[in-house]
User: Which sequence fits this backbone?
């Protein structure tokens, strides 16, 4: 396209030897699809996304911080849930990946965690809540879940079903709070490890690769391998 040609020319005008691309699944996939844009220079990619939906790496930069933000948010939400005797349906980001909801849900002790990867029955959820010894709590839902016969936001769909079952509830949408806040130490360490792997790749003359963390080891994999695994 005309845009791709302009981008390639701009990179050539900058006279770069190496470009380090930092981003999530979309950014890395586009880099693979439009690799002609980056011909003539080394391209090293570093995975950074709170969704943690990039294949081949055990962690992505930003995920741990987003989980911590959700935990802090829900810890405070629980005070209102307790005092007002109601359930809160908290919707997380994550697109079609439930890692964010699952990890944050486990960390806060959510009464239920609903994610796209695992099928669930709303009737079983209602039964579970009604059998609970408490009249308050948190139901964590990933934005990517779906319910047959329903449309709209994930939390709203679950909330409607709870209301029909006479379970007092409210929805909560932390939205971009998940993407902000002080970076936790594990994310900083992860970023340092990725940068070290990127420098080694540059020194070794590698190109069209992505840094990954696999079984405690920082290394690189080809973008072709990443794309085939997506």
Assistant:
């Amino acid at each position: 396209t005309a845009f791709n040609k302009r981008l390639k020319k701009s990179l050539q005008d900058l006279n770069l030897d190496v470009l380090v691309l930092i981003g999530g699944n979309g950014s890395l996939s586009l880099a693979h699809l439009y690799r002609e844009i980056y011909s003539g220079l080394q391209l090293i990619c570093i995975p950074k996304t709170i969704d943690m939906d990039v294949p081949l790496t055990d962690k992505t930069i930003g995920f741990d911080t987003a989980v911590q933000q959700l935990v802090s948010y829900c810890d405070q939400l629980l005070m209102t849930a307790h005092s007002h005797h109601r359930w809160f349906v908290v919707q997380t980001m994550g697109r079609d990946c439930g890692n964010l909801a699952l990890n944050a849900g486990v960390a806060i002790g959510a009464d239920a965690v609903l994610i796209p990867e695992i099928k669930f029955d709303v009737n079983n959820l209602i039964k579970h809540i009604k059998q609970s010894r408490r009249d308050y709590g948190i139901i964590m839902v990933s934005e990517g879940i779906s319910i047959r016969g329903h449309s709209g936001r994930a939390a709203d769909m679950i909330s409607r079903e709870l209301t029909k079952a006479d379970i007092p509830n409210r929805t909560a949408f932390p939205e971009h709070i998940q993407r902000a806040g002080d970076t936790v130490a594990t994310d900083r360490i992860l970023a340092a490890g990725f940068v070290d792997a990127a420098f080694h790749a540059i020194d070794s003359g590698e190109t069209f690769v992505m840094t990954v963390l696999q079984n405690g080891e920082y290394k690189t994999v080809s973008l072709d391998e990443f794309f085939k695994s997506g």
Q: What stands out?
A: Helices lie at 2-13, 25-33, 63-84, 99-108, 122-130, 154-164, 185-203, 223-229.
